[in-house]
């Protein structure tokens, strides 16, 4: 799902950053997406707060944050076979990861929106490229 979303965004002209733990898989994703100049890959384990902090410290502007991460290995078993740690990883990847992304990513999105509001009045929160409209203040 993440690769398909990245492809669709790149097709619309967006700059896209994809993040993953495995550098070989990231290289494969870059190749599968045609290695466009507007694609940035970043190796990080987004279940680790320090690495999420490093990720957002490297970014200067974000319009959107999307997480398709899910660690479901071993969690879909019959109850007698269920590994509790596997179930905990699912919760971590689907609940705590988005919280970390919001915690560290919000500042980057908010700073960009604050900068935008200094000179422009936004009529939509989305980028003009995706249907939002902005006009210069006083216009």
Describe this structure as you would to a colleague.
This protein has 139 residues and is mainly alpha-helical. It has a single domain, classed as 3-Layer(aba) Sandwich (Rossmann fold). Helices cover 47% and strands 12% of the residues. It contains four helices and four strands; from the N terminus they run αβαβααββ. The strands form two sheets. The chain has a two-stranded parallel sheet with strand order 1-2. Strand 1 (16-20), helix 2 (23-32) and strand 2 form a beta-alpha-beta unit. Helix 3 runs parallel beside helix 4 (84-119). The longest helix has 36 residues, at 84-119.
Task: Record keyword descriptors for this entry.
single chain; 139 residues; mainly alpha; Rossmann fold; two-stranded parallel ribbon; two-stranded antiparallel sheet; 4 helices; 4 strands; disordered C terminus
How many separate helices?
Answer: 4
N- and C-termini, Cα separation? 41 Å
The run of helices and strands is: HEHEHHEE
Low confidence ranges: 114-139
In helices, the fraction of residues equals 40-55%
Q: What gyration radius follows from the Cα positions, in whole Å?
A: 18 Å
What would you say the CATH architecture is?
3-Layer(aba) Sandwich
- In the CATH hierarchy, what is the superfamily? NAD(P)-binding Rossmann-like Domain
Q: Looking across the biggest beta sheet, what order are the strands in? A: 1-2
Q: Shape, please?
A: globular
Mean pLDDT: 76
Structural class: mainly alpha
Which oligomeric state applies? single chain
């Amino acid at each position: 799902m993440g690769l398909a979303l990245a492809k669709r965004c790149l097709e619309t002209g967006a700059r896209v950053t994809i993040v993953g733990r495995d550098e070989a898989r990231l290289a494969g994703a870059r190749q599968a997406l045609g290695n466009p100049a507007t694609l940035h890959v970043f190796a990080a384990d987004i279940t680790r707060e320090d690495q999420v902090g490093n990720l957002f410290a490297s970014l200067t502007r974000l319009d959107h944050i999307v997480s398709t991460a899910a660690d479901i290995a071993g969690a879909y078993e019959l109850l007698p076979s269920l590994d509790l740690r596997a179930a905990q990883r699912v919760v971590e990847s689907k609940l705590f990861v988005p919280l970390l992304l919001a915690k560290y990513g919000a500042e980057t999105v908010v700073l960009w929106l604050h900068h935008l509001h200094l000179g422009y009045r936004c009529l939509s929160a989305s980028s003009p490229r995706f249907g939002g409209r902005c006009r210069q203040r006083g216009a």
